[in-house]
């Protein structure tokens, strides 16, 4: 029953009175109080049925257990111990009869037997103590081994933590290098795009220059033909002939220069090979070392600067690579 009411408590008090021949007291329905009073038989009676606790019985009656008993029409017990008839209270132990006196020899034999028994017990206890000491030694050894293993585990954990920290540092440095390389690649892409745009503009300019050179070459040929006609017409005049020849040679030289410039522009635009003259070779030799060896050396310097993470060295190496590339292109 989850909650006791006034009526159910009165019913239980009457049921207790019918069953045990007396109304209940506070110790009957309070096992803790009965145990404190050394009245175990009250606990057995309480557990033999379904009864409310003392506090549950007092709650509907303003906290008075006697009021609950009186509400059931019974007279509560008086406080204090109750008088019992003589001979009712007896100790719960068997009464022993007096024993006859024994002789001294029997007492000595019994004492010697007890001594031997105690010696055997002492020897057994000593063996147990020795075994306990051995177990304690083994336990200490195991404890030492456990401490060593714990210390090694701590060292492994510290090494693992250090390895994780080093990995994090390497990952962070790798991320920074990747970001730097990405920025460098983006810069190179932008530079290549700008160079491509400049090359396209140079190509258009070269085409316009080639067309202008062709026009100038055609004009020079026309002037040369006119000079030849003038030479044929004025063959009698030596001074006129000399001037005409000089004009013709100058026109031929200008035409050759214009043709050479046109071939250079065509080579620049179309990529056709052209043989260098002796003067151009001499100027290239005077310009300093260039070519694949210089380019390879500059690339190795660039690789070392990137591996070392030296920004200043990387900038200088990029400048050397660009200079070697321009010199090699000019020599080609």
Radius of gyration: 63 Å
Number of strands: 0
Task: State the order of secondary-structure elements, H for helix, E for strand.
Answer: HHHHHHHHHH
Tell me what portion of residues adopts beta-strand conformation: under 5%
Q: What about the largest sheet?
A: none
Helix segment tally? 10
End-to-end gap: 110 Å
Shape: elongated
Uncertain runs with pLDDT below 50, 5 residues or more? Answer: none
Structural class: mainly alpha
What fraction, in percent, of the residue positions are helical?
A: over 70%
The whole-number mean of residue pLDDT values reads: 77
Strands, helices and their partners?
Blueprint (H helix, E strand, L loop, with lengths): L5 H15 L10 H6 L3 H8 L6 H5 L6 H7 L32 H130 L4 H33 L7 H9 L5 H17 L2 H21 L1
Task: Describe the fold and architecture.
This protein is an all-alpha fold and 332 residues long. Among the domains are: 6-71, no CATH class; 175-274; 276-332. It contains ten helices and no strands. The longest helix is centred in the middle third of the chain and has 130 residues, at 104-233. 8% of the residues are buried. The model has no long low-confidence stretch (mean pLDDT 77).
């Amino acid at each position: 029953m989850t909650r006791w009411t006034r009526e159910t408590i009165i019913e239980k008090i009457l049921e207790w009175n019918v069953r045990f021949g007396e109304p209940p007291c506070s110790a009957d329905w309070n096992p803790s109080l009965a145990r404190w009073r050394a009245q175990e038989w009250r606990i057995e009676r309480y557990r033999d049925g379904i009864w409310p606790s003392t506090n549950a019985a007092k709650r509907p009656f303003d906290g008075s257990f006697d009021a609950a008993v009186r509400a059931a029409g019974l007279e509560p017990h008086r406080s204090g111990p109750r008088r019992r008839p003589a001979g009712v209270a007896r100790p719960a132990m068997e009464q022993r009869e007096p024993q006859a006196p024994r002789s001294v020899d029997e007492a000595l034999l019994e004492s010697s037997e007890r001594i031997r028994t105690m010696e055997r017990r002492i020897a057994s206890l000593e063996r147990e103590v020795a075994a306990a000491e051995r177990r304690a030694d083994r336990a200490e050894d195991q404890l030492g081994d456990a401490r060593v293993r714990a210390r090694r585990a701590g060292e492994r954990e510290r090494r693992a933590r250090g390895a994780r920290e080093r990995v994090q540092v390497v990952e962070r440095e790798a991320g920074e290098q990747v970001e730097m390389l990405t920025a460098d690649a983006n810069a190179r892409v932008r530079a290549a795009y700008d160079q491509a745009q400049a090359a396209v503009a140079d190509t258009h300019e070269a085409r316009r220059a080639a067309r202008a050179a062709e026009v100038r070459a055609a004009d020079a040929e026309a002037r040369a033909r006119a000079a030849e006609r003038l030479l044929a017409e004025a063959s009698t005049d030596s001074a006129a002939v000399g001037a005409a020849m000089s004009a013709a040679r100058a026109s031929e030289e200008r035409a050759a220069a214009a043709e050479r410039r046109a071939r250079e522009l065509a080579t620049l635009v179309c990529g056709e090979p052209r043989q260098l003259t002796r003067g151009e070779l001499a100027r290239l030799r005077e310009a300093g070392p260039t070519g694949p060896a210089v380019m390879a050396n500059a690339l190795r310097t660039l690789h070392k600067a990137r591996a070392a993470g030296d920004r200043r060295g990387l900038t200088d190496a990029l400048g050397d690579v660009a200079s070697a590339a321009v010199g090699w292109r000019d020599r080609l």
